[in-house]
Amino acid sequence: MRPHTSTRTIGGLEDDEDEDEEDTRNMSKDRILEAIRHKREIIGKLRCQPWNMKRKRRTLKVAQRHLQRQEAKVSKARLLKAEAGRRITLMSRWFDNFKIYLILWEAKIKRIESHFGSVVSSYFTFLRWTLGVNVTMTVIMLMFVIIPEWLADSRMTFASERYNRTKSIKIMPDDVRLRADEMSTVWDLGGYMEYSLIFYGYYSRETFFGETIRYRVPVAYFLSNIFVLGYSFFTILRKMAANARTSKLSSGKTEQYVFNWKAFTGWDFTIGNAETAGNVHMANVIKFREAIAEFTVNMKKKYCCLQILLRLFANLLVFTMLAFSVWAILAVSQIRETDTFVKQNAVSITVSFITLIFPNLFELIGKLERYHPRTALRIQLARVLCLYIVNYYTLIVSLMMKLRDIENERKVLEESQMVAINSINGLRTVNQNRTVRDLVTSSFSDHISPHTTPAPLEPWTTVLADFGPIGVSNPKALVSKDNSMHNASVVITHQIGPSDVWQTPYEQITRNYTVYTCVRSCY
Are 310 and 303 in contact (CB under 8 A)? Predict the structure, then answer.
């Protein structure tokens, strides 16, 4: 006779009454406890059954009579233990269900999963996990670095030792404060943001609490960063190990039964959208086709000479294109003329053209090799990655070469300017050491002869450059207005002597005079 199990229906409870009485005599304590739990479940679900009231009452009486008979055979301690275990199980299940509501954006991620599948929702799950790790690292830095510095600054008084020591990094200057509210300053994270706890330059060398406790912020900053780095590595590796344990396709068994694994584990049962289900169906079909093609390739394992030559030719074309991209970037980076728009943006146009056209050409070249679709995709991605690395490395090298050329030109220009300045300074030294009359004689002896000057028709007064035009009552000195020429004809006059002894002449006397040279300064 078959023992009573939890899979029996409520409708057969009345018919099996005599059988249960005989079964309970030979049942163990654990089986009796299981039967008691089953009867209690029947009593709890009896109200939901679509029966008439007479049948419900009869079933309830039978279940209660069974409970009384079976509970009498079990001690109270075991009953209480079983009941406590059941309550604990219910509480843990309720708590697990309640934790789902505490997970951030869980409902939205489940909605995305029902529309687009678990592959798309896993990306948002990863973003949520990354946010949690970053928040944890922020809390660690906040507790051990930011809050101690803030507490130390709150105890700081004006003109104290700490105030004087940290004034240059914590107090905003007046010129910066005037521009702190401007949009450009806020956009560059300057002003109030620069002199705040957000930036590392705000922190001092050490922080004191009272007179006995000493808290070193640099040591805390170093240890906190080390702990954050170790925590991030530990969390990432732990999550990767957990995913590897739960993944059924990560073991070597997937290579034994390829089509069975793809058939029974390829469908995503979380999808609730018809369009997404159709896309997943087509994706599974493509996976099966790739698996069949891969199996066929593995069975043949034959290489013809033509295929080998085509693959060598394809790789040669790829290397040629990489070399051409390097030459093109180096060539356009050496352009010095900027008279047209194309020449001004030659480097950016060339790099954009290469990154746009060459990957498509790589894909066309890959069709000559006739690899498996998955292998061809990996080779395509590797070639594109090499193209990007080579292009940007070449771009950086070309910019460094251009910067070096500009630096050399600047040095040559500075050297020429220094030579010109030194020559001018040497000429000034000669002028200072020589008298004005010697300078006039040496400068104009080859060009001006005093004997060839024609006599003026009207009264004319010749004044030497040593003295300048000196009035009888108001003495003045003649000084050159242009400092770059030794014999300039444009001059200005400066008054000589104290102004209180000057006398106003009774009448203005106009005099004509000639000047051989101009006095550059008054010695």
Answer: no
Instruction: Please name the residue that has the structure tokens 């130390």.
Output: 152
- As for how many domains the chain has, the answer is 4
CA geometry: angle at 249 spanning 247 and 253, to 5°? 125
The string of pLDDT tens digits covering residues 270-328 is 788 888 888 888 888 888 888 887 777 666 655 577 788 888 999 999 999 999 999 99
Same-domain status, 204 and 272:
no
Q: Which tokens in the block code for residue 244?
A: 């590897």
Nearest to 263 by CA among 287, 282, 297: 287
Q: Is there a contact between 436 and 514 (Cβ–Cβ < 8 Å)?
A: no
CA dist., res. 194 & res. 170, Å (int) = 9
Q: At 265, list the tokens.
A: 């584990």
Contact call for residues 290 and 373 (beta carbons, < 8 A): yes
Residues 127, 386: Cα–Cα separation, whole Å: 28
| Single-letter amino acid, residue 328 | A
Residues 269 and 226 reside in one and the same domain:
no
- d(Cα 387, Cα 329) in Å, to the nearest integer? 12
The two structure tokens encoding residue 78? 């075991």
End-of-domain residue from the set 246, 276, 303:
246
Other residues' Cβ atoms within 10 Å of the Cβ of residue 78? 15
> Are the C-beta atoms of residues 128 and 109 closer than 8 Å to each other?
yes
Round to whole Å and give the CA distance between 523 and 520: 9
491-511 pLDDT, tens digit each:
555 555 555 554 544 444 444
Q: How far is CA 296 from CA 85, 371, 375, 377, in A?
A: 56, 12, 14, 18
- Is 192 a domain residue? yes
Condensed to tens digits (0 to 9), the pLDDT of residues 158-204 reads 777 777 777 777 778 888 888 888 887 878 777 877 777 777 667 77
| pLDDT band at residue 472 under the 50/70/90 scheme | very low
Asked if the structure places residue 444 within a domain, the reply is no
What global pTM score does this model have? 0.42
Tokens of 240: 């990767």
